[in-house]
Amino acid sequence: MNNLLNILIQSSLAISVMYMVYYVFLRKDTFFKTNRFYLMISLLASALIPFIDFSTLLPAREHVLLVILDPIIITPEGIQQSVEANANLYTIGLSIYLTGVCIFTLRFIYQLFQLFMLVRKFGVSRKQGLRIVFTNKTYSPFSFFNLVFLNQKDIETPEYQKIIAHERVHIRQWHSLDLLVLEIITIFLWFNPFIWFYRHAVKTVHEYLADEGVLHSGVDARIYSALLFEQSTGIQVNDLTNNFSKSLIKRRFIMMTKKRTNQMARAKLIFALPLALSMLVLISFSPDMIAQEKLKEAPPPPSVPQEDVAANKADVKNEKPKVIHMVEYQDEEPVFTVVEVMPKFKGGKEALYTYLGNNIKYPEDAKKEGIEGTVYVTYVIEKDGSVSHVKVLRGVHESLDKEAVRVIKEMPKWEPGKQRGKPVRVQYNMPIKYTLAKDKEKEKE
C-alpha cells in the first residue's frame, strides 16, 4: 500500500507542477507543435518518474537508501486499536482508489465499443485517400486514428473539403495517440484534478494545430471561422475522438488571427523547459529526502562502512546492472538494504504489528516517571529468515530501549529476502514510539 501511495503521490505532484509550468509560460503562445510536445513528454515523464532511479547521480555516501518501517506506536494499552484503525484506513483508501480505476477502465472500454459499433453499423468508405464512416447521426465531424466520421449530409455541402482538410491534420499528426495515452493515464490518476486540465490542454492544442493546417492550405480565416461556428452545435461522441467543433470557438478564432510568437515568447520557452526538467528531477528525489529526514535524529551504526555496488555485472543478455544498496559488516557477508524481493514477516505487515502489540510492554518504571519518546532499532534478516544484529540506533531510556530490543530479538523467522533468486541478508530500521498521551488525557478529565 505504501509503495502504491508513494507512486501516486510522486506522479500526481509531477503532473501538477508540469501543468503549472505550461499554464504560466506556454499556454498563450503559438508554438503549437512545441506545446504539444511539451504536454505529452511532461505527462509521460510524470507518470514514469516514480520508477526512475536518479540516486545514482549522487555521490555514494549521499544516496544509501535505508528501509524504514512505519513507526510502531506503543501505549500502556498496546497498539491493537491503532493497528486496526490504520488497516481500516488503508483498506478504505485502497477501495475508493480501485473503485475509481474500475469505473474509468469501464468508461474507456465503453468509448471504444461506441466507436466499434458506429463502424460496424455504417461501414467504412474510401474517399480522397481517407477511410470515412458516413453516419446518419447529428454528430460533429470527428476522427479517431485513420477513421473520419461524418454525417452523410456533410458531403453535399461546400464546406466538405474544409472539414476533410481539418481531420486530415489530426490523422497525419497522430493526435488520437495522444488521447489514448491520456485516457490510460487518467485511469490510474483519475483523482488528480490536474490530469483533467491536461486533457483539456492537449485537446485544445490539437484543434489549434488542425486549424493552422487548414489555414496554411489557403482557406480564408473568416470563412473557416464561420464553418466552426456552424458546426459547434454538433454532438460529441466521446473523449477519445478529435472533434471538429470542439468548444472554445472564441479562443480558436483568436489563435487563428494572432501574430506568430515573438522573441519574448521564445525566451519564456527556453526558460520553461529547463525549469520543468529541474522540477521533475527534484520530485524524483523526494522519497529519499523524506527517508533521510526521518533518520536525521538517528545516526547510522558506528564503524559501519556503506557503499553502493552493482548487483551483478551485465549477464549474457546484456541487461543493465541494477544498483543495489548494501552494508558490509567486517568478516561477514554483505547486508543489503534494497533487494529485488524484500523479506516478509509471515502474515504481512498487519501480522507484524499484531506480534509487536501483543509482546511489547510499556515498562512500569518509564510509565511512572512519564518517560516517552521514539527508539530507533536496526536489525538484519538473515538468509534463513532469522533476526540478528539487533541494535539501538538512538535510544530514549534504558528500560524502553531494552524492551524494544528484546521483542525484536524474539521475533519469529521471516521469509528471507532474495536477490537474483538467492537468499541474502537484508537490513531494516524500525522506529518504536512510546507515548503516554492517552493516560495524560484521562488524568485531565
Straight-line N-to-C gap: 37 Å
Give the rounded overall mean pLDDT: 77
The helix content, as a percent range, equals 40-55%
Spans of at least 5 consecutive residues whose pLDDT stays below 50 are 60-66, 287-328, 439-445
Q: What would the principal axes of the Cα set say about the shape?
A: elongated
Largest sheet, in brief, is: 8 strands, mixed
DSSP E strands, number = 13
Count of DSSP-assigned helices: 14
Estimated share of beta-strand residues: 15-25%
Structural class: alpha+beta
Rg over alpha carbons = 30 Å
Summarize the structure in short.
The chain is of the alpha+beta class. The chain has 14 helices and 13 strands. Strand 10 (373-381) and strand 11 (387-394) form a beta hairpin.
Please explain how this structure is put together:
The protein has helices at residues 2-26, 32-48, 80-122, 160-172, 175-188, 193-216, 221-231, 249-257, 263-284, 286-294, 349-359, 364-369, 398-409, 437-444; strands at 72-74, 125-127, 130-135, 142-144, 147-151, 242-243, 306-310, 323-327, 335-336, 373-381, 387-394, 417-419, 422-434. The chain is α+β, with helices and mostly antiparallel strands and 445 residues long. The strands form two sheets. Strands 1, 7, 8, 9, 10, 11, 12 and 13 form an eight-stranded mixed sheet that branches. It has a five-stranded mixed sheet with strand order 2-3-5-4-6. α2 packs parallel to α5 (175-188) and α3 runs antiparallel to α11. It starts with a helix and ends with a helix. Residues 60-66, 287-328 and 439-445 have low confidence and may be disordered.
